[in-house]
Amino acid sequence: MTQQDPIRRLPAPRAGIADIPRFTPPPPAPAEAILLNTNENRFGASPAVAEAMARDLAEGRMNYYPPIEAEPLNRALAAVHGLDPDCVVSVGGCELLLPLALTAYAGPGDEVVWFGDGFRKFHGYILTAGATPVAVPREADAVGTLLAAVTARTRVVLIDNPGNPTGRMLPAAEIARLRAGLPPEILLMLDEAYVEFADTPRLGLDHVPGAGNVLVFRTLSKAYGLAGLRIGWAAGAAPLIETVKRVIPTFPLARPALAGALAALADREHLARVVAGCRAGREAATVRLRAAGWQVPDSQGNFILLCAGAPGTDPGAAAARLTARGVLVRLIPDFAGAAALRVTIGTPEDMDAFFVALGA
Ligand SMILES: Cc1ncc(COP(=O)(O)O)c(C=O)c1O
Questions:
Q1: Is 1 part of a structural domain of the chain?
Q2: Residue 226 · residue 43 · CB < 8 Å
Q3: 175 and 313: one domain?
Q4: Is the pLDDT of residue 190 over 70?
Q5: Fewer CB atoms near the end CB (10 Å): N or C, the chain?
Q6: Which contacts (CB < 8 Å, 24+ apart) does range 62-66 have?
Q7: Residues 17-51: tens digit of each pLDDT
């Protein structure tokens, strides 16, 4: 028997999978670093979350599976947002829910239209489903550009609103125009991970009762400060949610995560405080950075994008200066052909440290 080259005997992944970029982890940050690089919530979660999780663990029921389809959370989310519980599905983070939902509606031979300057992970989610990503530029008439890209092979239009990394947002009237312009058999997936920080925090959910082809994705990672628990959810017409529930795990959330999520959802005052603090910090930082010569798009998220403007505003140099002073930010080497810096809005103390380190 001849020895075969073991490399050549490896199973080959499905088409497209090798093109999905892996996330490059940033270098380990010192404990005292100020993390403004991953759009986490620097204000923290409601104190009720840790209490509820501790109570849950103390019950010692980890030998039993958690509730099927995270049903208690679906009901709680539906109650908070005035939806039917059959119109809600929860899974361990939108990072999981988005590709699963895509897989249910698009596959090999199908096209998924998205904004090429939107959330970078979308490209990989579409390839995970086996579908073909069709990236369109976000031009002045963004909705017109999306609609013009729709072909007979299009199954899904996937957009982040507010968009990451700019924080720009398509207003309600434009979302309504997009929905009206799409044939009813094409699914509109609206990723609203940051919408709680926006002027219109209900946005996509207003379409849920009436539209049979809109799925709205939300997360508890951002405004609720539960990124470490991994909780994402989606809302849509009952038949769409029923379909998504076919492709999710039977037990999508661990017991302590479920307990924490319910507690976070119940603390509306904490949410309001975080959102108000973040919005105030965002507006103040935007004004100050523009005055210092940076170009900063109007953001509706918990982050802002700094693009070069006046002489001396160099995203690469600013990133190096900030990092050296322990303020971590996200340098995007090629945003619309140039470098840009995405900065998460932190607490007032974080933002003071940011401006001192930036020297602006
Ligand atoms: C636009 C967008 N969608 C989804 C996610 C991921 O959400 P989750 O933490 O629920 O997986 C992020 C995280 O940064 C995001 O920016």
A1: no
A2: no
A3: no
A4: yes
A5: N
A6: 62/255, 65/250, 65/251, 66/251, 66/253, 66/254, 66/255, 66/258
A7: 999 998 888 778 888 999 999 999 999 999 999 99
Ligand 1: atom nearest CA of 227 is 9
Of 210, 240, 266, which marks where a domain is finished? 266
Mean pLDDT of 169-182: 94
Q: Is 90 in the pocket of ligand 1 (CB under 6 A)?
A: no
Number of domains present in the structure of the chain: 2
Residue matched to tokens 């992970």: 121
Decide which of 235, 266, 297 is a domain's last residue. Answer: 266
Ligand 1 centre distance from Cα of residue 121 (Å): 9
Separation of 94 CA from ligand 1 center, angstroms?
6
> What's the 253 CA to ligand 1 centre distance in angstroms?
17
Which residues constitute the domain of residue 226?
47-266
Q: Which atom of ligand 1 is nearest to the CA of 232?
A: 10
| Same domain for 53 and 170 | yes
**Å from CA of 216 to ligand 1 middle:** 13
Single pTM value for the model: 0.95
Establish whether residue 221 lines the binding site of ligand 1, counting it when its CB lies within 6 angstroms of any ligand atom. yes
Q: Is residue 224 part of a domain?
A: yes
Within this chain, do residues 187 and 52 fall inside the same structural domain, yes or no? yes
CATH number at residue 327: 3.90.1150.10
Give the mutation target among 38, 73, 90, 94 for probing the ligand 1 site: most ligand atoms within 8 A of CB: 94
- Are residues 119 and 20 part of one domain? no
State whether 31 and 160 are in the same domain: no
- Residue-wise pLDDT for 304-341, tens only, equals 999 999 999 999 999 999 999 999 999 999 988 899 99
Q: Using CA positions, which residue lies closest to atom 2 of ligand 1?
A: 193
Band (1; pLDDT cuts 50, 70, 90): very low
Burial 208-241 (b: 16+ CB within 10 A, else e): beebebbbbbbbbbbbbbbbebbbbbbbbbeebb
Q: How far is CA 291 from each of CA 120, 331, 347, 358, rounded to the nearest angstrom?
A: 29, 21, 21, 14
Ligand 1 atom with the smallest distance to the CA of 38 is 14
With residue 307 as reference, give the H or E element that holds it: strand 303-307
